[in-house]
Design brief:
The complex is a heterodimer of chains A (131) and B (94). Chain A is α+β, with helices and mostly antiparallel strands and 131 residues long. Chain A contains five helices and five strands; from the N terminus they run ααββαββααβ. A five-stranded antiparallel sheet of chain A has the order 2-1-5-4-3. In chain A, α4 packs antiparallel against α5. Chain B is an alpha+beta fold. A four-stranded antiparallel sheet of chain B has the order 2-1-4-3. In chain B, 41% of the residues are buried. At the A-B interface, β1, β2, β4 and β5 of A face β1, β2, β3 and β4 of B.
């Protein structure tokens, strides 16, 4: 696949794969706080369908602190808050990486503008299932 | 290209997504199209089918991938989040 994607010869392909393996085998810092992929889903309340979403990789404890209220569900399958307010979503974005904070804030403002005239619910969740 | 297919369940009383169960990938979406035989209810950036029926998702989940949710797990989810109260959706990200 690497040869097909890069057009390199077999020897170069092996080097690329080895380099990738080295990067991917880096072990995570055990002292780092647990991080999860959080999805902010936009559910259209009349059509009963997800119409938009944003995702974030954030420390789980920081998200709990910033939302500041207990999640609706917190079990082995999912950590989830319902009816997230725009202020809560903005607080969530504020704990995101500073380098992308402003761009993420604009992305959220665009998302809210896209659905300004539709009945929506914002739901924030982190799936704990394997995929 | 990644092509993840998930069962997503929304509880309208809580206003919350209460389940996001990965089922599979390209074979699963092919099966879903043959079972659902209708356009997705949302198709910009990703695909999402609303008002999923239990028999539909059971048939689709028969093509689950390793570690993906299969029919047995779908039955367990149906007992916990009955489709007549919760909103069951099929989510396809690509």
């Amino acid at each position: 696949m690497v040869r097909r994607m890069t057009g390199c010869d077999p020897g170069q392909a092996v080097q690329v794969v080895n380099a990738l393996a080295e990067v991917l085998s880096l072990t995570p810092d055990p002292a780092a706080p647990p991080t999860g992929q959080f999805i902010l889903a936009v559910v259209h309340l009349e059509r009963r369908v997800i119409v938009d979403y944003m995702d974030f990789f954030l420390p789980i404890d920081d998200v709990r602190t910033c939302i500041g209220r207990p999640p609706q569900i917190d079990d082995e399958g999912i950590l989830s808050w319902g009816n997230v307010t725009p202020d809560e979503a903005t607080a969530l974005i504020d704990i995101d990486e500073p380098e992308i904070h402003d761009a993420t804030l604009r992305e959220f403002a665009d998302l809210m503008a896209r659905h300004a005239s539709t009945p929506i619910a914002l739901s924030l969740y982190c799936s704990r299932r394997l995929r | 290209m990644a092509s993840d297919v998930n069962l997503v369940i929304f509880d309208p009383q809580m206003g919350a997504i209460v389940c996001d169960a990965w089922i599979g990938m390209s074979d699963t979406i092919a099966k879903a199209r043959s079972v659902l035989r209708r356009d997705p209810d949302h198709a910009i950036g990703f695909e999402c089918w609303a008002r999923l029926q239990l028999d539909e998702i059971l048939e689709i989940s028969a093509t689950h991938y390793l570690e993906g949710a299969g029919p047995d797990e779908i039955q367990e989810l149906a007992a916990r989040f009955p489709p007549d109260g919760a909103w069951w959706m099929l989510f396809h990200d690509y």
